[in-house]
Amino acid sequence: MDAEAVSAAADRSETSLDDLYARHASSAGRLAYLLTGDRAAAEELVQEAFVRLVGRFRHRRVPDAFDAYLRRTIVNLHTSQLRRVRLERRELERARTSAAAVPATLPDLESRDEIWRALLELPRRQRAVVVLRFYEDLSERQTAEVMRTSTNSVKSLLARAMRTLRERIGSEIDDPA
């Protein structure tokens, strides 16, 4: 095929595509608007549908069924968009629920500093037991292994440390269960 023939074929397909757009854009816009209820969203939906069909324009099995292809594409795109929005809303709801579970009040920094000072005043082994049990969240057995001592020793050190902390900062510290 020579260059003129290729150019003529391209012109015919562009003209045909232009004709298809001119013939179907308004009905596609109405369909999209009825699906979305929003003019801007409808225009985007129609544009996206035409863009998707342009790549398949030359390979249609039934050339006269462009309007059916276009309608189906618009409905599929709209359904996909609804699915995406639904998933986003679920994720936002999860995030909102988890954020609501976190207390909205600011931490009491003065109390935290007071607890920190009292913890630093504990004897070295008592402080180690408190840190390993509550900060590192180790079990009594794991704490005993780290400190190379018995579980009974860990329990005793923890009881003395908690008693000392309660005396120094008051009843704000709960008894460990």
What can you tell me about this protein's structure?
The structure is a single chain. This protein has 177 residues and is an all-alpha fold. The protein has 2 domains: 99 residues, Orthogonal Bundle (Rna Polymerase Sigma Factor, Chain: A); 61 residues, Arc Repressor Mutant, subunit A (Orthogonal Bundle). Helix content is 78%, strand content 0%. The chain contains 7 helices and no strands. The longest helix is centred in the middle third of the chain and has 36 residues. The termini are far apart.
Q: Beta-sheet strand percentage?
A: under 5%
Number of domains: 2
Low-pLDDT segments: 5-15
- By DSSP (H or I, 4+ residues per run), the number of helices equals 7
Average of pLDDT: 80
